[in-house]
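Provenance

Sequences were taken from public entries as deposited. Structures were produced by running a predictor on each sequence independently, with no templates supplied. The record for ABC transporter permease from Chengkuizengella axinellae is shown for reference.
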Amino acid sequence: MKALLKFELYKIFSQKSVLIVFALILLVLSTLTLYSTFSSSFYYGKQEMISAYKQVEGKLSKEKYERQEQEFESRTKKSSSKEDLAYGSALIETMSEYEDIEYYDNLISRIEQDLTIATGFNYESLLLQKLMLEQIDLNETYFHKGPEKMMDYVSAFGYMITGILILIGLSSIFSNEDVTGMDQLILSSKNGRNKLVSAKIITAVFFVISIIGVQLLYNWGIYSFLYGNDGWLVPLQKSSSFMLSPYSLNLFEYFSIQMILHTLFSIGFAIFVLLISNLCKNNYHSIIISSVVFVAPMMLSFFNLIQMSNVVQVAKFIQIDTIIQYSYTYLMKVDVLFNRFKVFNFFESPVLGSIAIPTVFVLTTLFFTWLLYRTYERKEVI
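Predicted structure for ABC transporter permease:
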């Protein structure tokens, strides 16, 4: 088994196409990121931005808001230096956070009113939402651009890069043996089938963890260089992508969960790709089918066809937009599980989507794993 595992690892990591594509993607992404950042009129330099936020960070209050508003008007009129522009930007962001506090207070008040007339599952879900929102504390502000950019990387680029490399590296892992005739030798060997499948699964998991690990280092490196590494303890709602999130997490807690779930969903997609590769006798068929499953949700979303799916139903109950929302592609972003309050009705009790969906996903992946072993066992020697 150990020798077989080493052989499978060698086959995967010796693919020049994977290494070349990975290196090119990171090179192009680095070039675009650095160029767009340094050429942006809203980027004033890392030290200037950190220094500006140091002047406005801390507890938020009405008195502080009024004082900052006066300072903003006076400083922006006097000078247009990088330091003053950075300070003005920090003040604008800080002042907008007062509106966020008011929004959450009003939301809790509306939920309390709705609770007086709600019953059953609706009552339980509203009560859960209220309890979650009450745990959020937005009364402090700190510079958090670095961590926020690292989170955004996963949902903007990371999921796509991981998916592309899985397609390139794993789509032909079984079908290639059918093409070369190596499968006949393996199938005729004693106890070779289950060991081979296990070796390929372990190799796929290691491959996924490796490419995510490299991206994690890249992600941390480039955004720490541009924005620094401060602000991990800021509430999740300070990030513009999670303004409506009911989860009382800080950025570090969410980023940790994001990376774990991104890895979990990516491994699930890798298992699915292995299954398709096992079922196909042609490399091109395997790559095309797996690519369609991954790319179709992105294409539908890009062309706004997802909006048309409101009138189209599958099996009269399941809407296409629901299928897209919970596809491998969207789940690998992770943010869809945490950016809004989402619950499922489980025997009249609300279950958070961030718990229910990964649970169902794990069960589905286990089923695909069993199906992979089963279908390979049933292959016959010709």
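The chain is about 70% helix and 5% strand.
Residues 311-318 have pLDDT under 50 and may be disordered.
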